[in-house]
Amino acid sequence: MTDLYYNGFDNERYLTEQTASILERVERFNNKLYLEFGGKLLYDYHAARVLPGFDPNVKMRLLQMLKDKTDVILCIHAGDIERKKVRADFGITYDVDALKTIDDFREWGLDVTAVVIIRYTGQHPARAFRNKLEHRGVKVYTHTPTKGYPTDVDLIVSDEGYGANEYIKTTRPIVVVTGPGPGSGKLATCLCNLYHEYRRGIKAGYAKFETFPIWDLPIDHKVNIAYEAATLDLKDEVLIDSYHLNRYGTNVVNYNRDIEAFHLLKRILEKITGGESMYQSPTDMGVNRASAGIVNDALIQEAAHQEIIRRYFRCAVEYALGLADKEVLDHAGKIMGKVKAKPEDRKVVLPARKAAAEAEQGGKGNAGIFSGAAIELGNGTIITGKNSQLMHAASSLILNATKYMAGLPDSLLLLPKTLIDSVAYLKKDILNGKEVSLDVEETLILLGISALFNPAAQAALEQLTMLRGCEVHLTHIPTPGDEAGLRKLNVNVTCDPEYSSKSLFVS
Asked: Is the pTM of this model over 0.85?
């Protein structure tokens, strides 16, 4: 059987069509195109989850193919640096993510031409970030807030508006403009440099590299609804592109922010270029051939259904942690209703809850908390774990799963009690910790140590890579050590909005 039988997405077909669309757009704009990247350029795990088979780094593969034609500008909002905004999927701040992105680009054989700190007004953290980059040989520009934005187009497109910010020098036909998260200033940077290009007699153009929503899928397609679920905090809504419908008589979809901003953006583009815009709708601006890669619609519909449930759980946890409003949680529930989804549609939810109930019935648990965890392996087998005084439920789960895959008996102890006791002594008596049971990160380290002298532990250790992409559910919010360990294993984790400790502070 071919991979296409198991996957819903053909990366090669997508690469071919997306690359051709970009090059066509470059040619249309006299061999100079500012290409804004919407969404994640690297590690697009949302796309990988809703489009099974999608390579999370396929967009970087595309850029690597075009690297001789491409400059890269990385944007970051000064306010995001100041607020220490965190990228949830990696658990790192946006400024650290920018540094990681530069390193990642270099590993793929591409250099970041420049970093632009937008809305810069001298903020100390942003200034320190700029200094750090410059000391490492990275070219940094700072752009102040644009005068007149968003209403006074004449002022925006003037020497006092876009012209007040320094021109970012690029030499190649494609200028990729990316940045961590929404509001990073990608569009403003594109338009600012476009203004300077026209001042220099270069009739460059702008386009947006997009993945979601997929414009030529129906508005009620679960992949597009999953996009709404993924952007709950932004209150994004997938709508029919009314501009496109009025102009061409065809129904395509876009999201509310692009549709709402299009009238202003069109006016700005026409002011910069001095002529009628080539774009008659926000969808026209996008370069998105994601639908060309879809080879199994039923499979991706189910995958999107599961992603909607995962996003609901995440929202429920954020609400419990005080990070989301009740309004956002209610909206997540409405999206679940759209696709007739229930939390229990996720196969690992009920087994995890059953494991927690068994822990309580058996008097296992720890400090009055009874936690369960479940994982669905690649062959469909579901393995569970429970918490104890020795380890967290997620830790037990990982050990049980690796034992199963290695063909080891469930009763076999992979971690010697002497090692566990030594770590407990370190945490409690040396470091004055309150919690001594092993989290996932600690368990993985001990498994690695145990593998040095225990062949069974070595066999289990070798199975860890097989967990990538597996579905996991916990009955309690993971501790930082659990969260970090599970993230490194690259499993898809959800949890019930229940605290794993009676303490208010958990380290």
From this structure: yes
Q: Is residue 277 part of a domain?
A: no
Residue type for position 244: H
> Do residues 415 and 404 touch, judged by C-beta distance below 8 A?
no
Q: What is the pLDDT of residues 309-342, one digit of tens each?
A: 999 999 999 999 999 999 999 999 999 999 999 9
Q: C-alpha 366: how far from its chain's center?
A: 34
Helices (H), 42-171: 45-50, 58-65, 78-83, 94-107, 124-135, 153-156
DSSP, collapsed to helix, strand or coil, labels residue 200 as coil
Q: Which of 39, 360, 307, 313 is nearest to 178 (CA)?
A: 39
Residue with tokens 């819903």: 8
366: phi then psi, degrees, rounded to nearest 5 = -155, 125
Residue, of 52 and 2, whose pLDDT is higher: 52
Q: What are the start-end ranges of the H helices in 274-348?
A: 282-285, 297-320, 326-338
What are the CA-CA distances from residue 271 to residues 162, 175, 191 (Å)? 12, 21, 11
Q: 287 lies in a domain?
A: no
**Cα dihedral: 462, 467, 468, 474 (round 10):** -140
The per-residue pLDDT for range 235-274, each reduced to its tens digit, is 899 999 999 999 999 999 999 999 999 999 999 999 999 9
Boundaries of domain holding 448? 346-495
Classify residue 353: in a domain, yes or no: yes
**Considering only CA atoms, which of 424, 446, 442, 449 is closest in space to residue 481?**
442
User: Torsion over CA of 295, 296, 297 and 299, rounded to 10 degrees?
Assistant: -140
CA distances from 361 to 248, 357, 365, 372, 389 (A): 64, 6, 10, 12, 16
CA-CA distance, 285 to 30, in Å (whole number)?
16
- The count of structural domains within the chain is 2
In a domain, 251, yes or no: no
